[in-house]
Amino acid sequence: MDLNRVVIVGASLAGLRAAETLRNEGFDGEVVVVGAEPHRPYDRPPLSKKLLAGEWEPDRIHLRQPDTFDDLDVEWRFGVAGAGLDPSAGILHLTNGTDITYDGCIIATGAACRRLPEQSRYSHVHEVRTLDDAMRLRAEIADGGRHVVVIGAGFIGLEVAATARQLGNDVTVLEGAPAPLIRGLGEEMGAAIGAMHEARGVTLRCGVQVDRLHDDGVLLAGEDGAEGELIEADIVVVGIGVVPATAWLGDSGLQLRDGVVCDETLNALDVDGSVVPGVYAAGDVLRWPNPLFAEEMRVEHWTNAAEQGAAAAKNLLAAAGRGAGAPEAYAPVPFFWSDQFDIRIQFLGRASADDAVEVVLGSTQPNEDGTVKFLALYRTGDRVHGALGVNAPRWVMKMRGQLMEQASWHDALAHAATLA
Ligand SMILES: Cc1cc2nc3c(=O)[nH]c(=O)nc-3n(C[C@H](O)[C@H](O)[C@H](O)COP(=O)(O)OP(=O)(O)OC[C@H]3O[C@@H](n4cnc5c(N)ncnc54)[C@H](O)[C@@H]3O)c2cc1C
User: Fold this and answer.
1) Measuring CA to CA, which of 42, 162, 258, 367 is 20 to 30 A from 109?
2) What are phi and psi of 132, to 5 degrees?
3) Is ligand 1 within 6 A of the CB of residue 37?
4) Residue 135 C-alpha to ligand 1 middle, in angstroms?
């Protein structure tokens, strides 16, 4: 396959890492990166933490320092989006009506916030996905004294709740499930994190269904069709998850199922399940079978986006005979972190709803000084499946080998005991 021009769609973490890797691997053809936002690539995790808190300004969150930007020799097209892809002709259509022909394409369009009906009609309702979103919310909560209602107790909802509370706001979190963070950590550990929020002054209401947004706040669903309780709010933040940004690929013939469906090497598949030569994907937008966990995954976390951007670029080069060796399966132990108040959560592996969980070091109960530190392991069958550390970076990182090996539960417990 001739590989003269590679186009990367999405100019954020996965897209940038893909461009950097193409150059680091010696690709000397054209690289064009198309990004819907007007900004150069920036880091999203601070948007709900230090940037939202006003501790950092936007110039602290560049993903690549401005003075090294030109070194990449990449053509950046900011403020314009991919509008369609024709893989058989090798053409990317753009929203400004122009086309780009390509030999290789990496799709890195990430995800966008899931919204509630009529959300954009309400000026007091916010979401946090982009720098512009975060700056808008920051201006509202910076001085404290407001009642902030967060809908959704996922990671971003809880991070926003913690930041808003630390700025002196009253914060209520509404969650439909019985505990926060169930999808990421399971019910037991999610409830433990929820208790830490309550101890720090957040009002947490789980098991409540939001009916709709309201001029004065949020209306809960009532019983038997009756109007439910009105939760009054000055500011509402909707944190009910994300949807992968694939709408623009509707006519592409690519297989789309809650993400761009790829094979183990991150090569996109068509609707018949055949690989689409030259088209790869990376980051939050992508669903692929992780051979290490024998599970199809779509991961919405930083480390995965960065590593997949690099892996997609390497595999594109390898498939075109421009890299060392053949394309390789992408088989990581997934990892993420989240900072909420003084709580640093780190998770390696996966948490499934039916995993058994055991706290093996430390305790979910606060120490005398109010801090919490523990390591919990997740078990599927007789294998270790995940490791959660709260304020325990060394303990959790030292479990990586066990997860790589898919160690037995017995061996994982024995290894954890050596870390105390
Ligand atoms: C507020 C917040 C806090 C987070 N905190 C953490 C954390 O603490 N730990 C952690 O592990 N992860 C965290 N994450 C997740 C992490 O930031 C994401 O996993 C990561 O940004 C994904 O990178 P990406 O490049 O795949 O997608 P994105 O960062 O979503 O970027 C995709 C880009 O593509 C653009 N785009 C979309 N459609 C098109 C199109 N058609 N054409 C061109 N461009 C398009 C988008 O505008 C966007 O700029 C956080 C995310 C958010 C939003």
Assistant:
1) 162
2) -65, -40
3) yes
4) 16
Residue 34 alpha carbon, nearest atom of ligand 1: 43
Please identify, among 319, 352, 385, the residue that sits at the C-terminal boundary of a domain: 319
298 and 268: one domain?
yes
Residues 124, 269: one domain? no
- Same structural domain, 124 and 219: yes
Residues 145, 190, single domain; the answer is yes
pLDDT number for residue 340: 98
- Closest-CA residue, ligand 1 atom 15, reads 301
| Ligand 1 lined by 300 (C-beta under 6 Å) | yes
Overall domain count for the chain: 3
Q: What is the pLDDT of residue 224?
A: 83
In this predicted model, what pLDDT tens digit does every residue of 234-269 receive, in sequence order? 999 999 999 999 999 999 999 999 999 999 999 999
For ligand 1, say whether the CB of 111 is within 6 Å of any of its atoms: yes
For the cut 90, the answer to whether the pLDDT of residue 277 exceeds it is: yes
Distance from residue 337's CA to the centre of ligand 1 (Å) = 15
pLDDT at 242: 97
Q: Does 138 lie in the same domain as 199?
A: yes
pLDDT at 352 over 90: no
Domain termination site, one of 286, 319, 352: 319
Q: Are residues 348 and 360 in the same domain?
A: yes
Answer yes or no: do 103 and 120 share one domain. Answer: no
Ligand 1 center to 296 CA (angstroms)? 20
* Res 1: pLDDT: 76
Ligand 1 pocket residue status of 308, Cβ below 6 Å: no
pLDDT band at 288 (very low <50, low <70, confident <90, very high): very high
Residue 71: its pLDDT value, please? 93
CB 72 within 8 Å of CB 23: yes
What pTM was computed for the model? 0.97
Q: Residue 86's domain is classified under what CATH number? A: 3.50.50.60
Distances (CA, A) of 78 to 12, 21, 212, 245, 280: 11, 20, 35, 17, 21
Strand partners, 106: 8, 280
Which residues span the domain enclosing 151?
115-238
Q: Can you give the three-state secondary structure of 185-250, one letter per residue?
A: HCHHHHHHHHHHHHHCCCEEEECCCEEEEECCEEEEECHHHCEEEEEECCEEEECCCEEECCHHHC
